[in-house]
Amino acid sequence: MSEKIEIPLSKTKIVLLVLGALIFVIAGVFMILEPSTFITSRFRSENSIRIIGIVSVSFFGLCLILIVRKLFENKVGLIIDDNGITDNSNATSIGLIEWQDITGVEILQIASTKILLLITDKPDKYIDRAKGKMSKRVMKRNLTMYGTPLSIVSTSLKIKFNDLEELIVNELQKRK
């Protein structure tokens, strides 16, 4: 029996995510209320600016709600043990991902954010376990775009991405 590895959520990182989302919500509100202030050579239409503001408030408002909920959660962010990886780090987390279902690990980088993709031969098993229609939709989109519905981002965890990647790859190799 191997030891259980627990990686807590980073309250500091989560607070920074809350502040970032809040800034985008506030900016979106100003775009809705005062679109003329944001007219540039690229965005000349007040209606376009209002639409951008509505999208910003909607998307980042939802993110803000999900992030704030994570801030007050007392669950461990990530647990690695003999059963697999239990992910509680983000809104689309689905709990235990069993070792026998993980066929590989890949890295995806979007802008400056690195994402650990857990490749699985049983994507429907995990999509079906998703809580809520939104999570299910996101996981299906991830499957279509990246070949797997399972992803882990270190953004809300008390661990650097490279350390997380090394840890999961090593633990997977021990079990294969």
What do you see in this structure?
The chain is built from five helices and seven strands, in the order βααβββββααβα. It has helices spanning 11-33, 46-71, 123-128, 133-146, 161-175; strands spanning 5-7, 78-80, 84-87, 95-98, 102-110, 113-120, 150-153. The strands form two sheets. Strands 1-2-3-4 form a four-stranded antiparallel sheet, with no helix packed on it. It is elongated.
Query: What proportion of the residues is helical, as a percent range?
Result: 40-55%
Global structural class: alpha+beta
Spatial ordering of strands, largest sheet: 1-2-3-4
**Strand portion, in percent?**
15-25%
Number of strands: 7
Q: Span from first to last CA?
A: 15 Å
Shape: elongated
Runs with pLDDT <50, length 5+? none
Describe the structure concisely for a colleague.
This protein has helices at residues 11-33, 46-71, 123-128, 133-146, 161-175; strands at 5-7, 78-80, 84-87, 95-98, 102-110, 113-120, 150-153.
Looking at this protein, list some descriptive labels.
176 residues; alpha+beta; 4-stranded antiparallel β-sheet; 3-stranded antiparallel β-sheet; 7 strands; elongated
Q: Which helices and strands occur, and which strands form pairs?
A:
Blueprint: E1 5-7, H1 11-33, H2 46-71, E2 78-80, E3 84-87, E4 95-98, E5 102-110, E6 113-120, H3 123-128, H4 133-146, E7 150-153, H5 161-175
Antiparallel strand pairs: 1-2, 2-3, 3-4, 5-6, 6-7
Helix pairs in contact: 1-2
